[in-house]
């Protein structure tokens, strides 16, 4: 997912949390560490998931190498399957 999607999900969760807190279901003073947990999970997920941009660069590099004759079509297919 893109950063905008994660930001939107995060804002929805924060809004939901504040709303539930105002209704008495959650207590901000007690539950504030949840923000740290959510931010930590977000940081871990963004760190371990490969970015779409890096994959696009790899494909462009492979196509350039194929056009230049540095690698064969079989090598490109093998690289893309990994």
Quick description:
With 82 residues, the chain is mainly α. It contains five helices and no strands. Helix 4 packs antiparallel against helix 5.
Can you walk me through this structure?
The chain is mainly α and 82 residues long. It has 2 domains: 1-49; 50-82, no CATH class. It has 5 helices and no strands. It has helices at residues 3-22, 28-31, 33-48, 52-67, 73-81. α4 runs antiparallel to α5 (73-81). The longest helix is centred in the N-terminal third of the chain and has 20 residues, at 3-22. The model has no long low-confidence stretch (mean pLDDT 80).
Secondary structure elements and pairings:
Elements: H1 3-22, H2 28-31, H3 33-48, H4 52-67, H5 73-81
Helix pairs in contact: 4-5
* Number of structurally distinct domains: 2
Number of strands: 0
Note the total helix count: 5
Q: What structural class do you assign from the helix and strand content?
A: mainly alpha
Largest sheet: none
Radius of gyration: 22 Å
Overall pLDDT level: 80
What is the distance, rounded to the nearest whole angstrom, between the alpha carbons of the first and last residues?
21 Å
Q: Which overall shape is indicated by the principal axes computed on the Cα atoms?
A: rod-shaped
Q: What's the multimeric state? A: single chain
- Low-confidence sequence ranges: none
Reading the helices and strands in chain order gives HHHHH
Strand content: under 5%
Helix content: over 70%
